[in-house]
Known about the structure:
Layout: E1 25-31, H1 49-57, E2 62-68, E3 75-81, H2 88-99, E4 105-107, E5 112-113
Antiparallel strand pairs: 1-3, 1-4, 1-5, 2-3
Helix pairs in contact: 1-2
Amino acid sequence: MAELTRVNGDAGTVGATVVNTGAQIDFYKVMVDDTGAVDLRTEMGALGLVEAVLRAAGQNGNIEMYKVEDDASGQISLGMATTGTWTAATLEDAVQAVAGATTSTVTAPGLTLA
């Protein structure tokens, strides 16, 4: 698949209404560094870490919504229509591959919209 490399813009959260068309939406808590040492507010530009994590997550599902915490927690919350293609463990592996941090964790707190 062809891909265009962005050179400007950012991955800032855009407010929008999500209309569920019947696909199951699974929610994940992505901690890019579970020690809280990563301030993702500085990683939201083109080719930044937030974009890399979103691209990795989007490989196996549609990101319906996401939120980057406005602090130094390193947390990205994802709502994804995955049809079972991601588990917390496989998404964690993908995030670790792009983040380059073995301390990155992904949890699925059990909240699912169907």
